[in-house]
Design brief:
heterodimer, A: 312 residues, MetI-like fold, two-stranded antiparallel ribbon, globular, B: 366 residues, OB fold (Dihydrolipoamide Acetyltransferase, E2P), five-stranded antiparallel β-sheet, 34% strand, binds adenosine-5'-diphosphate, binds magnesium ion
Chain lengths: 312, 366
């Protein structure tokens, strides 16, 4: 467990710390820029030289969640005073709020499709991995290779056949269609990762449960699953990240009902000029779920990544 | 508690047969040893009895009921695994009561059973600890506790002392045996250590390459080995084997061995050909050069109260166990005499012991 080489010296530690912090800064600066751009006004967001200090505004977020129409000064005069901060911000630009934008809906689609496909991948993947790990499945090695082979080309290479199939099957632009598609892509990763984790769990634990009077399924559920929690959590994060970020299929297969956030956010650019704060606000909100999910599971994730490297 | 009968039990993994048609009987309340070298099929046999492995063919009766196709959860048997296999995500207490929860036992009864087991094993102080940090001995106790808490029909133990330190092993062996005597539970115990088997077992079955070589009490197996393998595997140093060509007729109590007449237990079979005379080191005596088998002392090994003297003879080396006080000088010419009543003659080709007055009661069973 602790195969200590030598304790690193103070100097080595400070160099390592410096490198890690530098790397973190480099990767975090763009994210930080997106984050602050979301709180700028449109003129501030495109000002040159770029503004690091500015007076924050919620205009980006208001624009993200609303559709607006321009009104003439006479019409504006005729309106009752604005209700709420959003209306006030919009009127400053000689516009009124016409209704909500599609962002909320698209965001929900992302949540449903991302988490739905992650759940399905993990559910099916865990059962399949357990089967492959514990039972004498005929042609086991060939099947495992076949499952892996679905990953040997970029998924988008089969975009056209899938597009045609989905149209025939009526799955285009449906939640079910997108969940199935992302599950199909993720499941090979899930089966392989999870099989590795389950292989590491000694069979004796389940056998002890069988002896203690539990059924095979109870043994799986009560003894194997808690042991595999680490593996399941880290696999779930990988699956969610893929499904959440996927862009190409989403553009190709969804346009309305089931459109996810990634293809939607760029369309904001086209609405009423280059509205960078709204885009940045959308991007910021889009980052949140994966960030929260990862933070919640981060203990497992870390252990998951080093799993197998550290043996008892 | 129950009697276990194994009939023609066989297990193949693909083309490989791990257990060939084994038969033996474990009486109610017996401490029964499955003994054999590593890879001989002991664990596989034990797992078939427990229901963790389905036999290819054959029958298993537990308490009179044929169970060979029943799942483990329906056999009411406890199993102590080689590495204990305590549930790692539960503390000691949860581990102990887990088998009771599966039966849907009432809270009050669970408490009572738990208290009973804790008392028997003396593990009150570790009850709320996670199993991860326990010492080997405590893990062993918890594993035993999980086995006994349910009052199963029988216990299976797969080399339960194998994971312990040498010094602790002896202590735990005593504890185990004492526990067995107290509960009188039918126990099947797997080991590759012949000393452990001889010390702890009421009965032993000796296995080799998936076959049952012999089945009997430790005394029977030691004094009346049924095969060359058993004679060689049991005892340290093991039995001396002296090869000779000869002919034996039913009723003989003297045989021609190396040019002299040798007294043996009265023989019950007739054979001719390559034979092996088997004699335990403690049944050989050193005399002067003109008596018995002649040889020269090659080595002596002092063991405290006894010593092992190795004598080189024309038919091979013979180890003699004798009192440490008897002088034995290297290179001395000596004669060897055998205690006639204890000798066993083996057929070299088949490896089987020839039936004689000595072993007839034992060989019938094999
Ligand atoms: N599941 C299995 N698949 C294939 N071969 C097995 C399996 N289990 C055991 N064996 C083989 O059967 C033989 C006996 O194994 P085992 O019963 O574990 O021996 P022992 O416990 O006496 O050391 C060994 O050669 C082992 O490799
Ligand atoms: Mg074994």
């Amino acid at each position: 467990m602790s195969f200590s080489v030598t304790e690193p010296s103070k100097r080595q530690k400070s160099i390592a710390g410096f490198l890690v912090i530098t790397y973190a800064l480099i990767t975090l600066v763009p994210l930080f820029w997106v984050f602050i751009t979301g709180f700028k006004t449109p003129p501030d967001s495109i000002s040159y030289p770029p503004k690091v200090f500015f007076s924050p505004s919620l205009e980006g977020y208001v624009n993200l969640f609303t559709t607006r129409t321009r009104v003439t000064p006479e019409q504006m005069q005729a309106l009752p005073p604005p209700v709420g901060f959003a209306e006030a911000i919009v009127r400053n630009r000689d516009m009124v709020i016409a209704g909500p934008s599609k962002f909320g809906e698209r965001f929900m689609n992302s949540i449903i499709i991302g988490f739905g496909s992650t759940f399905l991948s993990i559910f099916l993947g865990t059962l399949a991995a357990y089967g492959f790990s514990r039972f004498n499945v005929p042609l086991k090695d060939d099947l495992m290779f076949f499952i892996l082979s679905t990953r040997m080309m970029p998924p988008i290479a089969v975009a056209i056949p899938i597009f045609l199939m989905y149209r025939q099957l009526g799955l285009s632009d449906t939640h079910v269609g997108m969940i199935l598609l992302y599950t199909a892509v993720n499941i090979s990763l899930a089966v392989w990762l999870l099989k590795g984790f389950i292989d590491e769990i000694p069979r004796e634990y389940e056998e002890a449960a069988l002896i203690d009077g539990y059924t095979r399924f109870q043994a799986f559920y009560k003894v194997v699953l808690p042991q595999a929690a680490t593996g399941i959590a880290s696999t779930a994060i990988f699956c969610l990240i893929f499904a959440w970020n996927e862009y190409a299929f989403a553009v190709l297969l969804t346009s309305g009902t089931a459109q996810t956030a990634p293809p939607f956010i760029p369309t904001i650019i086209g609405v009423g000029g280059l509205d960078w704060p709204a885009v940045a606000a959308g991007a910021t909100l889009f980052l949140l779920p994966v960030l929260i999910f990862t933070i919640v599971l981060r203990k497992h994730l870390l252990r998951g990544i080093t799993f197998g490297a550290v043996r008892k | 508690m129950a009697k276990i009968v194994i009939e023609n039990l066989k297990k193949s993994f693909g083309d490989f047969t791990a257990v060939h048609s084994s038969s033996f009987t474990i009486e109610d309340g017996e401490f029964f040893m499955l003994l054999g070298p590593s890879g001989c099929g002991k664990t596989t046999t034990l797992r078939m009895i427990a229901g963790l492995e389905m036999p290819t063919s054959g029958d298993i009766y537990i308490g009179g009921e044929e169970v060979s196709q029943k799942p483990a959860s329906k056999r009411d048997i406890a199993f102590v695994f080689q590495m204990f296999a305590l549930y790692p995500h539960m503390n000691v207490k949860r581990n102990l009561i887990y088998p009771l929860i599966s039966q849907g036992m009432k809270r009050k009864d669970v408490k009572r059973k738990l208290a009973e087991v804790v008392e028997i094993l003396g593990i009150a102080d570790i009850l709320n600890k996670p199993v991860g940090g326990l010492s080997g001995g405590d893990r062993q106790r918890v594993a035993l506790g999980r086995a006994i808490v349910r009052d199963p029909k029988a216990f299976m133990m797969d080399e339960p002392l194998g994971a312990l330190d040498a010094e602790f092993r002896e202590h735990m062996a005593e504890e185990l045996r004492a526990l067995h005597d107290r509960m009188n539970a039918t126990t099947v115990y797997v080991t590759h250590d012949q000393l452990e088997a001889m010390q702890m077992g009421d009965k032993i079955v000796v296995m080799n390459e998936g076959r049952v070589e012999q089945f009997g009490t430790p005394q029977e197996i030691y004094d009346k080995p049924a095969t060359l393998f058993v004679a060689d595997f049991i005892g340290s140093p093991s039995m001396n084997f002296l090869e000779f060509d000869g002919a034996i007729n039913t009723g003989d109590s003297q045989i021609d061995f190396d040019g002299q007449r040798l007294s043996v237990p009265q023989q019950r079979e007739s054979v001719e050909g390559k034979l092996v005379l088997g004699v335990r080191p403690e049944h050989v005596a050193l005399t002067n050069y003109h008596n018995g088998l002649q040889g020269r002392i090659l080595a002596t090994e002092y063991l405290g109260t006894t010593q092992i003297v190795t004598v080189k003879t024309a038919t091979g080396e013979v180890k003699v166990r004798q009192d440490a006080s008897v002088p034995a000088t290297l290179d001395d010419q000596v004669g060897l005499t055998f205690n006639a009543k204890t000798l066993t003659v083996f057929n070299q080709g088949s490896g089987q012991a020839l039936m004689s007055e000595l072993n007839e009661g034992v060989l019938d069973r094999g």
